[in-house]
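Handout, page 2. Input:
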Amino acid sequence: MPLTIYSGHLVVIAMLPEYPESAEAWGWFALGSVVFAMVWRRFLGRGPLERAVAALASTVPMR
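Output:
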């Protein structure tokens, strides 16, 4: 789920009132991302953006 997590980071950072600068904030941010990705993968499989990219890629004709 790298694309989904990376995009999620950008969305969350954009929504924060100020840029987190402490190592503790970034640690919680990273931990939350890992936990979210593990739970999502366990119950729902591939991430939503990864599914979208795979669906788009499957429409491209192969030579």
